[in-house]
Amino acid sequence: MTILEVHNLKKIYTTRFGGNQVQALRNIQFSVEEGEYVAIMGESGSGKTTLLNILAALDRPTEGEVLLNGKNLVTVREKEIAAFRREHLGFVFQDFHLLDNFSLKDNIFLPLVLSNVSYKQMNEWLYPIAQKLGIVDILEKYPYEVSGGQKQRAAVARAIITKPELILADEPTGALDSKATDSLLTLFSQINKEGQTILMVTHSTKAASHANRVLFIKDGEVFHQLYRGSMSNEQLYAKISETLTVLTTGGENYE
Question: How far is CA 253 from CA 18, 39, 218, 237, 249, in A?
Fold first, then answer.
């Protein structure tokens, strides 16, 4: 079943005094199936962050549609958008976005509190997730008391506890060392195999090589895409590296 559909997406920014226009996205079109794990790659300035912000309903396109399970995000009213994001989307950010004056447990609970879920229900949902992520022993600690990898695991717990239709991850390994990166990527693969749909924006070839499909954005358009098929992570890594070389050396078409 198709969970996300992006149709003819265009985004044009106008400078402060209206003198110049910058086209960040042009005719972006793709879909994501339920249970897929998709990575989006591209050079800085390619439009991938703009695309993620529109998919997250943090920004609106100039033209086009974004359908999440048939619901057009573009038409969701401003006063309803925060609740819509909270109920349908999960977010994992490079810099964790955890509140230092809240324990990890309370950070994880925050979207549920905002949705008026009972404390009993929150605890029932938390502990199976915390056990899976290996963070049961640190739930009462504060973000400044734990490592970057542990912070990111708490952020993943916060993202999946609401049982979102789609997780959007923005450079999730960007602030992690190699050991924590490996651990997080293994975790993402695990929750994806359990049925969670993930869309990840990343500069990291290693991170992208764990996905099942990689979309490459160039100059605001989908330049190419790779499907894992029967490839191992190492084989997909090599194909991604090859595609990035073509992308960065000015190739217009890729076969």
Answer: 34, 20, 11, 20, 11
Can you tell me the distance from the alpha carbon of 126 to that of 103, in angstroms, rounded to the nearest whole number? Answer: 14
Judge whether residue 18 has pLDDT over 80.
no
Instruction: Report which of 175, 172, 194, 195 is spatially closest to residue 185, judged by C-alpha positions.
Output: 172
Q: Which domains does the chain have, with CATH numbers?
A: 2-248 (3.40.50.300)
CB–CB of 105/126 below 8 Å? yes
Alpha-carbon distance of 94 to 176, in angstroms, equals 9
Give me the pLDDT at residue 93, please: 87
Q: What is the pLDDT of residue 251?
A: 58
Cα–Cα distance for residue pair 200/208, rounded to 1 Å: 8
> Please, are residues 143 and 174 in contact by the beta-carbon 8 Å criterion?
no
Cα atoms found within 13 Å of the Cα of residue 254, Cβ hemisphere only: 21
pLDDT tens digits for 120-153?
999 999 999 999 899 999 999 999 999 999 999 9
CA pair distance 222, 22, nearest whole angstrom: 18
Q: Quick check: 96 and 152 in contact, CB under 8 A?
A: yes
